[in-house]
Amino acid sequence: MKILCVAEKPSAAKEIAKILSQEQYRSRSTDEKYIRNMDFDYKLSNNQIVQMTMTSVLGHLLELDFASEYRSWRSCAPIALFDAPIVKSVNKNCVKVERNLCAEIRGVQQIMIWTDCDREGEGIGAEVVEVCRKVNPRITVLRARFSSFTHAEIHHAARNPIQLDMNQAQAVEARSELDLRIGAAFTRFQTLKFQTMFHELDKKVISYGSCQFPTLGFVVDRFQQIQSFVSEDFWRIDVTYAHPDPAEAGHVVQFNWARGRLFDRLFCFVLYEQCVEQPMARVFKVSGKDTSKWKPYPLTTVEMQKVGVRVLRMSSSKIMEVAERLYTRGLISYPRTETDQFDKGFDFRNMIEKQTGDQHWGQFAQGCHLVPSHLAFSMVLLACPAMGKTMTRRILQSIPLGMRTTCRMMNGMFSSLWCVGSLGLVQRMQRGSRRA
């Protein structure tokens, strides 16, 4: 039996083929310079030996557009685009990819989809099936479900395939159709409208995106807030107490002023002067409460990008680019997710075992491997010497072992610096500036 395996991108196809074939595959070139077909034999769970061919696409194969009679901007009113017929065709950049799929699907009994396990991956998988069934309508469709490029998970996915989720695939197509209709209608409307009002826009397109345009509004609002903000000086009194007993050295208490800050310098100075003249203070009440330090939870992709931009000073696109490379090398699990939960069968130990041989933190990784409760607290510092690039190292340093999201950076990954005041009762007045 022959099975055609299709991944979402060439790098993923190569990694999967290496794992399934134990690096014993035969590689063939295609018309598309970025794609190669890899042939090998594989034993299924029932001990049946099958012939597999691993290939890939380059993202989405198909694209939506209006029928030819609606493509001219002045062919109809913009509102008519909400009901205009839509046609689906192969993206002009993927003609060679389609040709390769049509050639490889001949004589194949099954096709196994190895696209990323998210909604977009289901949509791409459905497009692959649609193209292949035009040539071979009798093929059986299988879906390999995996969340990381570890040997155990890839083999489990190959031997326990599921069905393609057409509900998610149809959701992707519906979103694409909405983006096309809304974007085209509003872009035509506001471009044609404003070009008659402002001569500077005669040859310019004022595009509209259902996500980008509202986001631009948030950016503009924040920009206007910053521009209109007027800074104002303020003063506050800080009080710190350190225990006089040398045995208690290091125990420092920082008192918070209930008034917070004052914008009247003279009045703040009067209060400060009273503290200096009467340095003894009385404690009227002492209260305490228990606090819990919870294990670090994985972040969703959006939260990870926010933390990465703010703390690592890297762009969102760069963070995702590096995370994709880490994912295809089997160092982290699938980076695009909207959940902070692990799969029940997620292989934490395999992730940690990759760190046990390192001379710097191998011993720590071994301890984490032996004590399961430490798994969520462990930090991956560097997975292999080949990953020496600064960007890759910075992101990989921020990933808890086994985390499921892109660069699962924990909230407490950066140490806090605690400033200890001088011994005794310290009163000082500080001047600051309130900022947006």
Detailed description of the structure:
This protein has four domains: 2-170, Rossmann fold (3-Layer(aba) Sandwich); 179-228, no CATH class; 232-283 and 418-434, Topoisomerase I, domain 3, CATH 2.70.20.10; 301-400, Topoisomerase I, domain 4. 36% of the residues lie in helices and 17% in strands. The protein is built from twelve helices and 13 strands. It has a six-stranded mixed beta sheet, sandwiched between helices. A hairpin with a 6-residue loop joins strand 2 (26-29) and strand 3 (36-43). Helix 3 (119-133) packs across helix 5 and helix 9 crosses helix 12. It is flat, with a radius of gyration of 30 Å.
Strand order of the largest sheet: 2-3-4-1-7-8
Order of helices and strands: EHEEEEEHEHEHHHEEHHHHHEHEE
Largest sheet: 6 strands, mixed
CATH class of the largest domain: Alpha Beta
Number of extended strands: 13
Straight-line N-to-C gap = 66 Å
CATH architecture annotation of the largest domain: 3-Layer(aba) Sandwich
Rounded mean pLDDT score: 80
* Class from secondary-structure proportions: alpha/beta
Helix content: 25-40%
Count of helical stretches:
12
Envelope shape: flat
**Whole-angstrom Rg:** 30 Å
What percentage of the residues does DSSP assign to strands (E)?
15-25%
State the domain count. Answer: 4
